[in-house]
Write a structure and sequence with these properties.
Blueprint: H1 3-33, H2 40-69, H3 78-106, H4 112-136
Helix pairs in contact: 1-2, 1-4, 2-3, 3-4
């Protein structure tokens, strides 16, 4: 990948990944506040559908493009492979679990509030871990590296 293209994809990856992390922090704050103000679940539902999912897909796609187009590769280094697997898990969980939990909470299902809070906590931990992997690049090469 040429340097200008790599920098463009890297910029898009950083924007979508940091955006995903930032919205997750906002969702965590809203989930805590929603115990006293349940109408906030409607705002969270909109964020889940219109912001979180596109950012998640954007982070996944740009990450794959970067890994395939640079020296890191998708399966050459353990940190890239772990980050890829965790991102796929997060995108699937966002698509099928988080969004349905947000819809239930917005519809007034009482038990869904705790699920939404737990999902926000797990998501924040996962995205923070992925960020740490990106910065420290631990563990060396895989057997395919």
């Amino acid at each position: 990948m040429k340097p200008k293209a790599r920098k463009t994809w890297l910029l898009l990856h950083v924007i979508t990944s940091v955006g995903w992390l930032g919205v997750t922090i906002g969702m965590l704050v809203l989930a805590l506040a929603a115990f006293d103000a349940p109408q906030l679940y409607q705002a969270m539902e909109l964020l889940g559908d219109l912001v979180v999912l596109p950012l998640a897909l954007g982070a996944l796609v740009t990450g794959v493009v970067l890994s395939l187009g640079t020296k890191w590769g998708l399966v050459r280094h353990r940190w890239v492979l772990v980050k890829f697997v965790l991102t796929v898990v997060a995108v699937v969980a966002t698509t099928f679990s988080l969004r349905s939990g947000l819809h239930e909470a917005a519809d007034g299902v009482v038990a869904a509030g705790g699920d939404v809070l737990a999902a926000a906590c797990v998501s924040l931990a996962l995205y923070t871990f992925n960020t740490v992997l990106s910065v420290f690049k631990p563990w060396g090469r895989t057997r395919w590296g």
